[in-house]
Prior knowledge:
By secondary structure, chain A is an alpha+beta fold. Chain A is 34% helix and 16% strand.
Amino acid sequence: MPSFSWLLALYLAALTGNTDGAVARESTERNCSLTPPYLPSTAVNTSLQLEELRVQMRAMNISAYIIPATDAHLSEYIAPRDARLAFMTGFTGSAGTAVVTLNKAALWTDSRYWVQAERQMDCNWELEKDVSISSVAEWLISEVPKGDEIGFDPFLFSLKTQGDYNINLDSSDRSLKSITENLVDKVWKERPSVPPDNLTRLPDRVIQRTWQEKVEHIRTQMGDNPYKPTGLLLSALDETAWLFNMRGNDIPYNPFFYSYTLLTMDEIWLFLHVERVTEELKVYLNASCEGALCVQLKGYDTILDHLKNYVTRPGVKVWIGTEYTNYALYEVITPQDKLLTSSYSPVLTTKAVKDETEQQILRDAHVRDAVAVIQFLMWLEKTVPEGNATELTAAEYVDKCRSKQKDSRGPSFATISASGPNAALAHYSPTKETNRRLTVDEMYLVDSGGQYLDGTTDITRTVHWGKPTEMQKEAFTRVLMGNIEISRTIFPSGTRGVNMEMLGRRALWEVGLNYGHGTGHGVGNYFGVHEWPVGFQSNNIGFRAGMFTSIEPGYYKENDFGIRIEDVAVVVPVQTKYGNNYLTFDTVSLVPYDRKLIDMSLLSSEQLHWLNKYYETIRSLVGAELDNQGLHEEKDWMLRNTEPFAEIGSSASVSSSSLTLIALAVAMLHNIV
Amino acid sequence: MPSFSWLLALYLAALTGNTDGAVARESTERNCSLTPPYLPSTAVNTSLQLEELRVQMRAMNISAYIIPATDAHLSEYIAPRDARLAFMTGFTGSAGTAVVTLNKAALWTDSRYWVQAERQMDCNWELEKDVSISSVAEWLISEVPKGDEIGFDPFLFSLKTQGDYNINLDSSDRSLKSITENLVDKVWKERPSVPPDNLTRLPDRVIQRTWQEKVEHIRTQMGDNPYKPTGLLLSALDETAWLFNMRGNDIPYNPFFYSYTLLTMDEIWLFLHVERVTEELKVYLNASCEGALCVQLKGYDTILDHLKNYVTRPGVKVWIGTEYTNYALYEVITPQDKLLTSSYSPVLTTKAVKDETEQQILRDAHVRDAVAVIQFLMWLEKTVPEGNATELTAAEYVDKCRSKQKDSRGPSFATISASGPNAALAHYSPTKETNRRLTVDEMYLVDSGGQYLDGTTDITRTVHWGKPTEMQKEAFTRVLMGNIEISRTIFPSGTRGVNMEMLGRRALWEVGLNYGHGTGHGVGNYFGVHEWPVGFQSNNIGFRAGMFTSIEPGYYKENDFGIRIEDVAVVVPVQTKYGNNYLTFDTVSLVPYDRKLIDMSLLSSEQLHWLNKYYETIRSLVGAELDNQGLHEEKDWMLRNTEPFAEIGSSASVSSSSLTLIALAVAMLHNIV
């Protein structure tokens, strides 16, 4: 799945009782310039919550209040109880910032969501078609009187967000006021609660390193750090879950649980909802003691007090990763010399490289996942010509195929099932209103993934059941060439993805095509489907052997069709002729591409060779699993779709070998003549 | 020339009376652990200057003084009078930082220069094998007592350097003290003076935009800026020189002159050595009035006072480019709301895109430059087998060839003329001690460039006059493939070089080879040979049509040989099948590559095709110029060396067309049989 977060939209839609998606067909946008204003049925009346919020604002003596879209862990995907932006504005898009003053309210969001915002918001809200903090700040300066204060919840601001507001408000004589009690929560009477479910630990069979080993390993890194931190604060939800080999269900599709960890050289404090920890789990965590390998359980909401308390101890220094630590925690670590920062905590950088067991089980999960996707593609091939499949039934079916696989734990995000022009919206998920029947006349894109106890998957295939146009074939082939060029490239260990991702675009650029999303992101072992900081984005870390990333170039033709080819690959060492420490990718997603859409004449011989090797791997690994599961029809389908393509040899040897053949033929000719 | 600055070394060597280069053969490094210490003849006695500097330090009540390697304009190449680091330490390398305390002295430099430092420094100096500011700061914290101050010249610190020291000294209870009078200058009795020569203006034939037009254009950008700057401060030497179409001779090989400009919406203040401005130039600059298009000439040393004065005016806001503004100027622009920053000033970003005239004359200069290089290569081919050529005589000869070309203004940097193992040191320039005879048994690398009134050139060719090894051929061919892959790639306007430069490395990576320098840098019109911010470095701006950059992958085998293939190319628009606003490179360096070193079997058909098109261009453009200059022998040599290679067609069409031929032949065969 490409990296911007829209999957939340569906959940938020349910939350606000609003089932209208981003792309509904009805022309029902609000018109606030009429008297009385015209509001579509999809608009949410926000007068009451605004009125109540302003009561809270007056009590705090602030003239404006900023409401971001994230949670206290700066998560990419949030739980319904953190959907404060949607509650206040009615707008359920995944990206945006709202600001409320004593007499105005405004929402900032990007172009993907402008139509949706006009449909969901009432006339209490201005829509600002910008997303920069400088634009929010300019608006604040024009609306907030000099000398007044602007409130924000420091738990929902990253250090960078706070810094950016500060720079932009600098010397404007308006200042930020950090208010740790969230004002929206005070007026949100029906705010969803934290799930009551017990937390779980991973079974031993999917684990190589116990939590004790992980703790020791991280402590070694703390000891090795020249700045000698005494404590490490973990804020991102996957940091704590990874460290203790535990999982929860607090965020849709993401098996995380609300938590923080403060790991010192001789203590471990785990902040979470203690009532969700069973007695068995307490034994597992060694929770009844206070030694170096005892996990002391503390209430989730007590993190700030405990952290404050810890930094009053003499000689302590707390290490934080600035990308995932919120401003509330940062601002209590004073004075400055009690703080040590890096972009990412050592837990995130350690987790980025999978251990041998994690690598093996993540590969295994992808083999079973391939069986599910192959089953699904075969079903579509039969069902679509009969005229009964739609985007929604297809999405249901692929989920069902996955659910039958061993250790399945549901989808890893809301399936993107998009036909024809719907696929041109890279952030599309089908709704009742937008649902399209699948036909042999349209291209179809399906981007889906599964959670398994042993791994998280994410794969996109684009298919056509009829006769694709030349342009569709060319675009598809060039997207495939991009995927292959990244997959087969050889590079020194530590090379950053952002410096190689143009290989995914180059064949498209050659004919003036491109795509507007990222080229790939890390994936987890039963974790987030976007597992940062691995991937091809500019803030991602360099590739090392053992990292997993998606590779997903695409092409989108507005109002016509969309193409994306996404595979997950693991970074592996490769033997080169002269050098050491070189790496390449090994693709672990094992589903064939639509042959009908490949224009063989465009592929280089190296690309062709890669493709045939990849198909051999599918035949061997998925073939065995299909046999295992007794899926004979699926196996035949797979074999048909992985027939080797005719290969001529490498582009250099082509010339010489074919010239030899010609020479030979001509020579024979001459002899005979 | 790859982007780290060593050309200064030669000048500095002359300055300190030290002619020993970085790579002298004698094992004459100092040994400070002996009693008395052993010092080679190349070591400089620095006791006197250290003693005198410490007197100055005591007078200022500081416990340490930091001496960087740059000048007040943060120039990459500096004038002899700015070589304070060399004067204090004896060390003449181009990169380093020195720190003097009341009883110790230490130099930080990178691995390229460790041997050189051990040869040039006496035992007053510790050598710290690191270059990070955090390492300098750690040393300072251990050597400077708590509560004491560390002095620095704010004219020699960038904002970033000052900030980095500050962060690293933060909460250590040692603070930085900005001292605008340089303490080294106070003890440097024989400090070279500013050249007395008159400044010059460019002739009209090489200019499209007058300085008045440039001023208006920059003022328009100031007016369009939403932060409404009232003034623009220009600090980099090429900013002022470009704005006024003027040149000087203050820095070896770089036609710059010491200057700053403060451009406001209705005034122009030019800070320079006024005595070097002729009456004619004063008329040209309209220097006798004070209006919006009058240039008011102010003394170079009065910039700080005038700037301080300007910022006391109500409502002013000064725009600076942070990459080239020194801390001394930055710190007087207070309060903060009088300051507007961007990485680069609008002059640097405007200058980066050459106008039509600049493009044309820069292309023209490259045609004449190619004649000189071809003459040189032909001469080598004759002279080397006779056994009389050396690295030094070759360097002299190429300079001589260039000097005969129209509008020549000397070399644009010290020629890198390197045979065999010497070429493996990417920063090598020959000296008397290291000078190697050129033979048919060694590879030879020559990286050289010229200043012409109409343009600056920079080209590297690597040749072999005997029988290269298979490894040499493979490495050369893969370097060439890298050069071609960048040159022929098509990309959207605005793509950053750093995101494409791996194309220059990919063919090398494939077999585990790589190189350790940048892949290219902008070049100027009779300006710097490294003209930032254009190029492939991480802090360079995105490519736009009209920018010129070098493309220079390489490979270096320690103690054996070095390969670099460098061309200058201009970014040009390209028509694509589907999209608009796509660009590619058009190579303007026009000298053939050594055919003997190309392994044709490695090239793709696209690379081969590019190479043949390039050779066609050389034949047409350089052929005409050789005819013009009546250089018949050179023309024959050029034609021989640009014979087209056998081409088979694109890799895809290879297969089909050659298969057709075979089929045809076989069909004929059958008919006959």
